Amino acid sequence: MNKQSETLERTVVLVSLQLTKTKIKVLSYIYQVYGRILIEALERMWSNSISSWTRAKKLLYKRFREKYPDLPSHYIHEAIRDASQRLKSFKKLKKKGLAKTDKPVVKKWSVGCDNQLWKLTLEGVRIATRKGWINIPLQFHKLFWRYYNGGWILRSSTRWKLVENKLYLYVVFTREVEVIRTSNSSKVYGIDINENNVTIYCYPENKAATIVTNFSKIVLGYAYRRARIQRKWSRVFGVKDNRRLKIALMKLRERNVKKGIKQKLARIVIDIVKDGVVVLEKLPKRFQDKVIEKNRKLNGLDAHRLKQSSIRGIHKLIIEKLEGYVIPFILINPSYTSSTCPICSSKLILMKGYAQRNGWKPRLMKCPRCGFIHDRDIIGAINLVGKYILDVSPMPLGRRVPMTPVWSGL
After folding, report:
1. How far is Cα 298 from Cα 356, in angstroms, rounded to an integer?
2. pLDDT tens across 229-249, in order?
3. Which residues constitute the domain of residue 75?
4. pTM score, whole prediction
5. Residue 393 · residue 352 · CB < 8 Å
6. What residues does 279 pair with on adjacent strands?
7. What is the CA radius of gyration of the chain?
8. Is 356 helix (H, G, I), strand (E, B) or coil?
9. Span 33-85, pLDDT tens digits
10. What is the rounded CA–CA span in Å between residue 232 and residue 37?
11. Number of domains into which the chain is organized
12. Does the residue 225 lie in any domain?
């Protein structure tokens, strides 16, 4: 059994009550000055080819301290640190050819605070300003108390930003866990995540289950509703500064509906795979974008449907749950797992069906060599298990036979 210690991180957003004009004025000053320091520091570090935080602090701290003498000094430290992190991230993106600009640009920011600038209390948070410490009442929710009382450690640093007349505080909880990469269990679960379903195959029991989510129907349904609302309100009041349009779009609550489905799905998956080793696909970054770039047939609503299908979101949530419950898992390259015959390794032929615009439907694949016929998603889950057993595990694979799948929906 191979154990590795890893640090889990969870970010919780706490929203304040409506602030008074005096508190908004004081916090707004810090927010705006922090942004100006961040922008100027980033420009100077870029022009001087400096990305190290310590070198940048030696170069820039005295200048900003003289320019803003009434600002607590730790805000200057955090702004320079923020600029250093942004510059390093930009250089990595530029090296990979993913940068969209020639030099780093600051569009949005939040104020970084170390342990000298904020203190959490039972009523809310205290923040250091040029006028001294001010108390901000917060709305604590169940998720915060679950982490706070559940053995998680509150990180000493935090971030906040102002949105209209409320403060948004981003607190981070950490926890050290022993992640088991290998296990003595004889069960191996392959999980294939798709646009409209999650398919789980269990070896050696030779059983499969497909959990249907129908995200494509949800995404397209909200897209049509959003278009109708925009046509209705923009025809009367226009688009710019249209408060009625903004309120009508907020009532759709698409994000909350999708989040609820993903949470329920992750719980079901964990209940199924908790007694074995889990094999997942190793999804690259910008997964949906790369699929759209590769397949020119995907455009318009089809491209929107794929980008909003939450494939990476479900994948990330399942991994977080596996880490939290200390269930061993491994990520494997999913190349050709859905198009290779699990019996003779020949290339499969798609019998019917392409894009899934109308929700989940079985997509049958046939092997021209051995005649094997099964659903594409189950084949993908079987081949993920096969790759793990052949490449990673000492367990023998043996010959697989077609199984009877079990279909279930959320």
Report:
1. 12
2. 888 877 777 767 777 787 887
3. 3-178
4. 0.72
5. no
6. 190, 330
7. 26
8. coil
9. 999 999 999 999 999 999 898 999 999 999 999 999 999 999 999 999 999 99
10. 43
11. 2
12. no
